[in-house]
User: Fold Probable peptidoglycan glycosyltransferase FtsW from Alkalicoccobacillus murimartini.
Amino acid sequence: MKYSFLKDNDWLLILTTYALACFGVLMVFSSSYVEAMYMGEGGTGDPYFFLKRQSVWFILATLFFIFFMHLNYQLFKKMSPYIIILSFVSLLLVIFGFGSSGGGAQRWLQLGPIRLQPSEFVKLGMVIYLAQVYSQKQVYIHKFIKGVVPPLIVVGLVFILIMRQPDLGTATAILMVTFFIIFLSGARWTHLLGLGVVGSSLFIALAVSETYRYERLTSFVDPFADPMNNGLQLIQGYIAFAHGGLTGTGLGGSVQKLLYLPEAHTDFILPIISEELGILGVLFVIGCYGVILFRGVVIGSRCRTPFGSLLAFGIVFQIAIQVVFNIGAVSGLLPITGITLPLVSNGGSSLLVTMISIAILASISRTNIRQKRLKLDQDDELKTA
Assistant:
């Protein structure tokens, strides 16, 4: 059966992804050019600095998207051990070798002019690894020691290395995706309950172990109690939301991006979108995520292989966690964790990994569509025979 480019690709998923990613590049520029102008000594920064950098990453992500979309997703089963090894090596390099610091954390690798955040790639790597391992443990997944525990050793080591950076938000997201994949694999409720208690206890212990971390996680409850420090970012975000109203002040018309709102082009880009494009702009973003996540669930449900199904659902849940964490943080419903808004916030590593993740979804979807078309062709042949 010949490959049909027009029929076999999930165009709703692809076009929605690119609509949101292109919108993200536009909003990165709109929310960052004032800050970019004041970068460097004497305010001699290039106002197009963040736009240029994000555009380069967007082009690179497009090339990777095309490649992974046409790559057979089953190859990741064989690549899983190498992906885990590379994940460990990259995290170790950040801590003990070539890591670069920023914002009080050491999370990046500086490779010449390229700055990568390994933890972003590790998130996808862990989804691939867990999908591969638990897809092979379906027969004895009900056995805690033999079926559930072994992969958790790898997860625990990755968690420790990410916490050394430190990055509680990413580490927590990995734990949640792990729990979700174990749940989909068919583990017993008693085992899931035990893992949930352990994970929650670990999160609470880490949250209260450092004063700065505890204050940041609890400041969302009453940001006005400390309006000039821990509550500043959230309060300025509130002002941006309130200023935008239904239709916004117009593209480029934000006041809060004039150095009032910290991280306006990264973690808190959604308030700027709301200020400039109103609630309608926010609904556009949420709608695009809804389409992407819905298509991901459909793709995972229709996949005939346990590995492909777990991989699709793992990717969907990983993206959903980031969206919920970010929107929850900027709206004051959840603690601020520093997790960016996928496809929209400034950040090359995040954009690249999210595009690759959705490309893998598109690859699984392509396989599903081709298998369905093959079955229909076979049924037609039987009818005419």
Remarks:
- The first strand starts at residue 99 and ends at 102.
